[in-house]
What we know:
Blueprint: H1 2-23, H2 29-51, H3 62-88, H4 91-98, H5 101-113, H6 119-136
Helix pairs in contact: 2-3, 3-4, 4-6
Amino acid sequence: MWWLYAIGSAVFAALTSILAKIGIENVNSNLATAIRTIVVLVLAWGMVFLTGSQAGLKEISNKSWLFLILSGLATGLSWLCYYHAIQVGDVSKVVPIDKLSVVLTVVLAFVIFHETVSWKSIVGCVLIGAGTLFMVMK
Length: 138
């Protein structure tokens, strides 16, 4: 079932880019990011309470808190950069560059978690990099 959620993620990510590009017209990109963040915050906490997951707050370790906070900071910085990039650039060029995060994630997973990287993964990363370059060239 995980792949259904992954497909949903891809569809919603695509919609995010298109809807954001329309929505940030004549709006400061930082303000737009803040508005988006409030919506995500309300949606996420709504799901927590809808599923009764709030009881798990007491069980989160200090290490998990630290890395969840750092992940949140990385997400916020990513969104700020992304919104500014799509505001001033072509969304069709920004999004492929943004998706280079796939390649960076594979490299970091190898370095930090010592995950196995197959030849298929290496070829896929090279193709993603080449495809990104091809898509953003003039």
